[in-house]
Specification:
Elements lengths: L2 H18 L5 E5 L4 E6 L6 E2 L4 H14 L9 H4 L17 H5 L12 H5 L7 H6 L15 H15 L3 H10 L24 E2 L1 H12 L3 E2 L2 E2 L3 H7 L25 E2 L6 E5 L3 E6 L8 E6 L6 H13 L3
Helix pairs in contact: 1-11, 2-7, 2-8
Length: about 325
């Protein structure tokens, strides 16, 4: 598929979105080297990408593993022994980094989501708060989406590398990929939220997808290993069994990446539709990355259906 053909598909989608009143802010597409298409319905500025942040945090995990500073089998309680209460559930010692990355910590509740953080839940020490929670199921046994799992994984990175997560990602990724140091929500103790709150423009947000499409390299420079990209972007746990109604976009979960129904495809996904979709087998096997941003007051379900049918399925 040529760049002209890709452009025609995306221009047709832009026209459809405008005619149908879809509440998109922007859409862009890229290969591993350059932006191929970009359109903004609103002013282009950094915006909260919500849980899309999780995929950036997971990339920090991969880099730390590549450096030999962290392992997927590291135990949360071993990293923070002083924060484990005397009456803690014994299974808290079974929570490993891989469980946090696959949303299967065993807490089995959606802790420290955005509204809860705004309400002061967990103040001031999120790690101590979570280690005092009940373990409802064996770690690793069941998917339950929870920003707390991502926050805990991010804190494990910080302990392993001896740096705050924002500084580590800036040194290892942002600065090497021509990205700014982002505005990023911190917890009450000053730690970047590993599960949300990063602010990026569309094409900066999309660079993570380009990095993964390139199997971990950016303009010929290795950022994270190909082995990590392959592991993070494949399904490790069933995330559909809890749904009352099937959703074509709920078809497996990797290490802070969601699978997509298209062959080999996956996405970083933030609330209200901050999406970077990576389609390695699209465009005749050359692969492509497509990203969209959407407003908090929009109708993302309508956008998602159109985006899936009129863009991802046609590339």
């Amino acid at each position: 598929m040529t760049t002209a053909e890709i452009t025609r598909i995306l221009e047709a989608f832009v026209e459809y979105a405008a005619s149908e009143g879809l509440t998109l802010e922007s859409i862009a597409a890229a290969n591993g080297d350059e932006v191929l298409f970009e359109h903004h319905f609103t002013y282009d500025k950094p915006r909260n990408i919500y849980s899309h942040t999780k995929s950036y945090m997971a990339t920090a995990v991969g880099i730390a593993i590549d450096e030999g500073k962290l392992s997927l089998d590291d135990r949360l309680a071993d990293v923070f022994p002083e924060k484990v209460p005397a009456d803690a559930d014994p299974r808290v010692h079974d929570i490993r980094l891989r469980h946090l990355l696959t949303m299967s910590s065993g807490f089995d509740s959606d802790y420290l989501m955005n509204a809860q953080r705004r309400a002061g839940v967990g103040f001031p020490d999120y790690v101590a708060f979570m280690l005092s929670r009940e373990i409802k199921v064996d770690p690793g046994s069941r998917f339950r989406y929870s920003t707390a799992d991502s926050i805990l994984a991010g804190r494990m990175v910080e302990e392993a590398v001896g740096m705050r997560l924002g500084a580590y990602l800036y040194e290892k990724l942002f600065s090497r990929m021509d990205m700014p140091f982002p505005l990023w929500e911190n917890d009450p103790e000053g730690h970047p939220i590993g599960g949300g709150g990063m602010h990026l423009k569309l094409t900066d947000m999309m660079k993570l997808g380009q990095l993964y499409l390139n199997k971990g390299t950016w303009k010929g420079e290795r950022i994270v290993s190909e082995a990590w990209v392959n592991e993070a972007s494949r399904s490790h746990i069933d995330n559909a069994s809890f749904l009352e109604h099937p959703d074509i976009w709920v078809c497996g979960y990797g290490y802070q990446f969601w699978m997509l129904p298209q062959p080999g495809a996956y996405r970083a996904d933030g609330a209200f539709g901050q999406i970077t979709a990576v389609l390695p087998e699209a465009c005749g096997g050359k692969g492509i990355v497509v990203a969209i941003q959407n407003p908090e007051d929009g109708d993302f379900e309508r956008v998602k259906q159109a985006f899936n049918e009129r863009v991802l399925n046609r590339l």
